[in-house]
Amino acid sequence: MSLRKTLQLQNGIAIPQIGLGTWLSKPHEVENSVVWAVEAGYRHLDCAYVYENQDEVGAALKKVIPSVIRREELFITSKLWNNAHHPSEVEKQLDITLSQLGTPYLDLYLIHWPVAFVSGREKIPVRADKPDVAEIDVNTSLVDTWNAMIALRETGKVKAIGVSNFTIQHLEAIIKATGERPTVNQIEAHPLLPQDDMVEYCRKQEIHITAYSPLGNNLQGKRKLVDYPEVKEVADRLGVTTAQVLIAWGVSRGYSVIPKSVQKDRIIKNFEQVTLSKEDYEKISEIGKNNHVRFNIPVTYSPKWMINLFDEAVEKETQTEYVVKLE
Ligand SMILES: NC(=O)c1ccc[n+]([C@@H]2O[C@H](COP(=O)([O-])OP(=O)(O)OC[C@H]3O[C@@H](n4cnc5c(N)ncnc54)[C@H](OP(=O)(O)O)[C@@H]3O)[C@@H](O)[C@H]2O)c1
């Protein structure tokens, strides 16, 4: 059984430690996934405007609220997409998300990326001169958008606000300018990308971390973490799945973890929490020593975001044309 543990955010709100991811859950998949997850005991759902499936998540919510749970028992996260960073767009896109999900409020609303695109209907606007390159809004800063997020709290439509994919430099910039720390930074984190510096920084700042791609989801065709022999050895010995071991690895680091699945048996199993011994935790951590892999790097997307966010080798090799406008 899952331990159904919750962690406390800096504003006192509890966030369930294991949540369901919904990225790349296709139409007709995500509705069932959410229903199965809630029935299995999940109380934390990770959504985003850009996943283009929030209507279906909303349809699932209608099926489980109030027959299985009350709205207040769920922790729902969604994210502001890059094309609505301009302060005049922030609340408008939140309203679309609320209407898609069919809920009057979110428990947590995040700035999805520290990158602003030009505002408009296109989710990924492209440059007229280079259709394979996303058109970045060079005028709207992170601080502008963060101030608009702060203003949302007054509306009662969001219980907490935070960010995603922010580096320490991005976090420091918005905190310095506004005095307001994000409650959460949602980042890619798994044994190949433990992000120890970020984990330590956020611990000191009381910024909660949510780890995405905990199973090492990869769009780059690399070996999946669930297939690593080291993970399999621990899983076989404990009589659990490799995904459970990876989720347990994240849980032992004290943050929340949001594995995605659209398969009922996996959704159920991923939520059956196991605890790793110190030795097994270290065995899994070893996988990432001298083997750094970040899967989610926007300069590799199509269209490309020509911006160096994380200083990864591929970002340095690419002639990036933009920098993040901090303030
Ligand atoms: N903030 C951001 O920028 C950002 C970026 C990426 C992700 N996220 C969030 O984090 C969530 C999780 O990350 P993710 O979707 O990238 O990757 P993930 O959860 O690490 O991995 C998902 C992949 O693992 C498979 N899987 C699930 N359970 C499994 C199991 N028990 N055994 C073997 N394979 C299993 C899934 O396939 P099936 O569905 O077929 O089971 C899917 O292919 C996302 O869904 C999204 O909500 C946020």
TrEMBL record:
Q: PROSITE patterns given for it?
A: ALDOKETO_REDUCTASE_1 (PS00798), ALDOKETO_REDUCTASE_2 (PS00062)
List of residues binding substrate: H112
Question: What are the positions of the active site?
Answer: Y51
**Annotated site location: Lowers pKa of active site Tyr:** K79
Q: In this record, what's one Pfam family?
A: Aldo_ket_red
Which residues does the UniProt record annotate as the domain NADP-dependent oxidoreductase?
18-287
Q: Which GO terms describe its molecular function?
A: oxidoreductase activity
Which family would the database say this protein is a member of?
Belongs to the aldo/keto reductase family.
Official protein name in the record: Aldo/keto reductase
Record organism: Russula ochroleuca
Taxonomic lineage is: Eukaryota, Fungi, Dikarya, Basidiomycota, Agaricomycotina
